[in-house]
Amino acid sequence: MAEARARTHDGAGTAATGAAREAGAGAGAGRIPQVPGFARWPVGGSPKAEGKALRGRVPRSAHAALDLDGARPDVVSAVEESHRGRIPELTPIRTGRMAATPFAFLRGSAGLMAYDLARTPTTGVGAQICGDAHAANFGLYGDARGGLVIDLNDFDETVHGPWEWDLKRLAASLVLAGREAGADEDTCREAAHDAAGAYRRTMRLLARLPALDAWNAIADEELVSHTDAHDLLGTLERVSEKARANTSGRFAARSTEATEDGGRRFVDAPPVLRRVPDGEAAAVAACLEPYLATLSEDRLPLLARYAVHDVAFRVVGTGSVGTRSYVVLLLDHRGEPLVLQVKEARPSALLPHLATAGFDVPEVAHEGRRVVLGQKRMQVVSDILLGWTSIDGRPFQVRQFRNRKGSVDPAALAADQLDDYGRMTGALLARAHAHSVDPRLLAGYCGKNEELDEAVAAFALAYADRTEADHAALLAAVRSGRVAAETGV
Predict the structure, then answer these.
(1) What is the C-alpha to C-alpha distance for residues 326 and 323, in angstroms, rounded to an integer?
(2) In contact, 106 and 172? CB cutoff 8 Å
(3) Confidence (pTM)
(4) pLDDT tens digit string along 145-173?
(5) What does the H/E/C string look like for the chain?
(6) Are 328 and 342 in contact (CB under 8 A)?
(7) By the 8 A CB rule, do 124 and 10 touch?
(8) C-alpha distance from residue 305 to each of 300, 462, 469 (Å)
(9) Please, what sign has the CA dihedral across residues 215, 220, 221, 224?
(10) Is it true that the peptide bond before 162 is cis, omega within 30 degrees of 0?
(11) How far apart are CA 157 and CA 132, in angstroms?
(12) Of 325, 319, 425, 349, nearest to 157 (Cα)?
């Protein structure tokens, strides 16, 4: 759609597209007037040509650059700043998890990498980006009919921003994961190169498809063949088997006990899971009423068949440690459980760096809404109970907990699987971006040859080296006592 295309990038080609729209006003409209929100027929302009023209301003080889400036925050300051607003007694757990490996450090330092990426070349083309598209943020989850979907699955940092940031973060993370797994440098570089290549080829494929087919492309059963990821089949089958058993019922069986009235309640398992005072539990339960208003109305009869039984606090993730996160136990008429996660939504760590890259910094009315809408814009299939709410003025997102979720640990992959995983995740990332930016535009820029792939791989190696140095600096600060860290949690 012409208007949608003009909104997806930062001015590139907007004037030309607008002129084409004006020139085509009324053409072919017949007896149907122009309908706002839809393209005008015939659709003017050439997104592919616009994309190719961008190469003159930002050559694809330029994406290899990593120029760190003197104002870059030191590692400890960056980690401490990322702890601001978190629950203080939990931040040592977060630091301990980040200190485990360089790949773990990258997972917890999206803001620091955004600072660095904001000083790298960008085309000015914007998309709804994950903001934290590292290799461990792809995984399996259940759809409404009991099937399994594989896609991006973490959107805490999602914003409208440069598509390159997601691709470069993915590529760098693959290098770090490969190094952690003991792969040689050529294998790590190949994984980053193949991720960028799969992104480029998938975008070109989507550009050739009818709009609806492109929107729903890369079905699960086609993903392995599309990305030539056959060496991953055994791993994906094992992960899928575990994911099917990873349900609310199994979590409740392990984490709750029966009560005298026939219900159930959570059992303390510190420091990861703990029961909360009655007042706090009541506030969390009360937030579910406004949450219902954020759901599609057809979901309401389903939730009306469940009663709220208990609330507990549960520590999650690496980057999310220290945020307020609750699990809510619901039981139906048979006593079968459904567990919801009510997770605090903080401002995206990317927001302070968008202006440096030439992008508008949006005003966000509700951070939970930002996360939920960003997730829905990027996934083909999303959790049917995804919504948002507030507790004592703090924004939260709400979603199903343990919804048959499973993930591949990229740092545990064999060398011959790492490039397969890179191709698979690169393809998924392209499909996710294509929901908010015309794939013809990016296909025109990315092109047919491997110039972009080579540049992104070079960046990934350089940034992996930088991350290893950052991780070493954090370890030194932990050992000196400057930063508290709790390991093994």
Answers:
(1) 10
(2) yes
(3) 0.91
(4) 888 889 999 999 999 999 999 999 999 99
(5) CHHHHHHCECCCCHHHHHHHHHHCCCCCCCCCCCCCCCCCCCCCCCHHHHHHHHHHHCCHHHHHCCCCCCCCCCHHHHHHHHCCCCCHHHHHHHHHHHCCCHHHHHHCCHHHHHHHHCCCCCCCEEEEECCCCCHHHEEEEECCCCCEEEEECCCCCCEEEEHHHHHHHHHHHHHHHHHHHCCCHHHHHHHHHHHHHHHHHHHHHHHHCCHHHHHCCCCHHHHHHHHCCHHHHHHHHHHHHHHHHCCHHHHHHHHEEECCCCCEEECCECCCEEECCHHHHHHHHHCHHHHHCCCCHHHHHHHCCCEEEEEEEECCCCCCCCCCEEEEEEECCCCCEEEEEEEECCCCCCHHHHHHHCCCCCCCCCHHHHHHHHHHHHCCCCCCCCEEEEECCEEEEEEECCCCCECCCHHHCCHHHHHHHHHHHHHHHHHHHCCCCCHHHHHHHHCCCCHHHHHHHHHHHHHHHHHHHHHHHHHHHHHHCCCCCCCCC
(6) yes
(7) yes
(8) 9, 53, 53
(9) positive
(10) no
(11) 6
(12) 349
**Backbone phi, psi, residue 162, to 5°:** -70, 125
CB distance 481 to 90 below 8 Å: no
The angle at the Cα of 330, spanning 327 to 336, to the nearest 5 degrees, equals 120
- Give the HSE-up count for residue 189: Cα atoms under 13 Å, Cβ half-sphere: 11
- The per-residue pLDDT for range 437-487, each reduced to its tens digit, is 999 999 999 999 999 999 999 999 999 999 999 999 999 999 999 999 998
Please give the Cα distance from 317 to 107 (Å, whole number).
Answer: 10
CA–CA gap between residue 52 and residue 13 (Å, rounded): 11
Separation of CA 377 from chain center: 11
Instruction: Supply 454's token pair.
Output: 């080579």
**155: its two tokens:** 């959107």
The two three-digit tokens of residue 306, written as one number? 């469940």
Backbone dihedral angles phi then psi of residue 230, each to the nearest 5 degrees: -65, -25
Question: Which two tokens mark 458?
Answer: 């070079």
Please identify which residue in the block is written with the tokens 């398992």. Answer: 269
Distance CA 273, CA 129 (A): 31
Nearest to 460 by CA among 126, 154, 233, 199: 199
Cα distances from 128 to residues 58, 205, 233, 429, 431, in angstroms, run: 21, 20, 30, 11, 11
Q: Which residues of the chain have pLDDT under 70?
A: 1-30, 218-221, 318
pLDDT value at position 391?
98
Q: How many CB atoms lie within 10 A of CB 107?
A: 23
CA neighbor of 377 nearest in space, from 133, 159, 169: 159
Comparing CA positions, the residue from 474, 463, 470 lying closest to residue 188 is: 463
Whole-number Å distance between alpha carbons of 24 and 293: 41
- Rounded CA-CA distance 420/150 in Å is 15
Instruction: Find residue 456's DSSP bridge partners.
Output: none
Q: Can you name the residues that pair with 258 across neighbouring β-strands?
A: 264
